Amino acid sequence: MNAPATGPDRIEELLTATKTAFASGALVRLKLGGYHGADPELKGVEVKKITVKDGDKFSFTYRYKTRDIIKNFIQPEALALLRAGLKDEFSSAQLATTGFDMVFERNGLKIRLKRKDVEGREAPSTDHNRAKNRPLNGSDKPWLKALGIAGKDGVVRNDAQDKFRQINKMVEIFAPLIQAIQTPQPLIVDMGAGKGYLDFALYDYQVNVAKRAVGIVGVELREPLVADGNANAMASGFEGLSFQAGTIMDFDATGADAVIALHACDTATDDAIFKGIRAGAALIAVAPCCHKQIRRQMEAGKLHDTLMPMLRHGIFLERQAEMVTDTLRALLLELHGYRTKVFEFVSDAHTPKNNLIVAEKDGRVGRDRGAILGQIADIKAMFGIEQHYLEGLLDS
Ligand SMILES: C[S@@+](CC[C@H](N)C(=O)[O-])C[C@H]1O[C@@H](n2cnc3c(N)ncnc32)[C@H](O)[C@@H]1O
Fold first, then answer.
1. Residue among 149, 163, 220, 262 to mutate when testing ligand 1 (max atoms within 8 A of CB)
2. Does a structural domain hold residue 129?
3. What are the tens digits of pLDDT across the range 141-152?
4. 32-71 b/e with 16+ CB inside 10 Å = b?
5. Same domain assignment for residues 202 and 252
6. Residue-number span of the structural domain to which 26 is assigned
7. Would you say the pTM of this structure is higher than 0.90?
8. How many structural domains comprise the chain?
9. Residue whose CB lies within 8 A of the most ligand 1 atoms, among 195, 221, 226, for a mutation test
């Protein structure tokens, strides 16, 4: 039987795991908490890996009550600091890696270290210089602070780096699509806008970086989010950005040049597509969320016999429902004169609902109408579908 691990062994075990994760690129972060050392202002420390000109470093963010201080260390220095800190000054630590988490707790001489495996977590980028190439920089933007992405000092918080990266990725995807819209001052409508992350980022980018005037309206059911969004837009001086409370279907989208909906729930995505088609928007872009409407019909309807062995498994039915729903959406968009493409817009480590349907009006309304209608009918027959919700809207 192994001898029980002593306190110092537990500290070394955590440090070895940190060192190994650092070397293999699996380190997400190490957080030290429960500080009871000599500095009355220090709240905690967060450690990450960064890659700078002269190699890989351990980057320590010292979180003080009113500011953060970042210091970078080579490995021997970093491990010595961590060893001393874990022994005397911090009573807790959480190590996050791409494959497992470790939680360290010290109560006097008693130390506990627990390990739990995790799946599907991505390692953050360690490239210190990459931030400089992003469409939006993170310095001192009131909207980033209001949305909790930047701290009081205006700097993007370490624990919001992922979210900020995703926002920049969205801007990278949408900027050329909006650029392609011919209208001098395009009106973009974001259906099911939530807190409006995308809207603030797109507006900031268009007006302050691309130097193109745009109007953006976020439509959202939840009134408190709408009130916060409008206050935040005003505080940011974003005159052309506003939020409107209500349902997608009740919103008058006449004059919209682009209609966007990211993770609007189930058939709310169809409402957004419908509004975009009816408005004749040049661009319709949706990231669908749940696919219950078609899934229910596939469960209740008469599937083609060949599909039965495959779709009796819930997980395959779920994935197939997603593909069928979005294929029919793409075909219905094509039927109404849109060129469509579907691609992953963020890594599936962030969300499994990571497909974006992008539809651009190409002026050739009704192209191959008969062929498209035939394809829609065949797919519906194969999967036992009576009607796609979007079809019903478009037929009404
Ligand atoms: C999952 S959130 C996504 C928010 C935002 N688009 C984002 O990606 O961060 C979906 C939002 O859509 C809103 N929503 C759902 N159905 C809606 C409808 N029919 N009309 C207006 N808003 C709706 C919800 O209140 C929620 O805030």
1. 220
2. no
3. 899 999 999 988
4. bbebeeeeeebebbbbbbbbeeeebbbbbbbbeeeeeeee
5. yes
6. 7-117
7. no
8. 2
9. 221
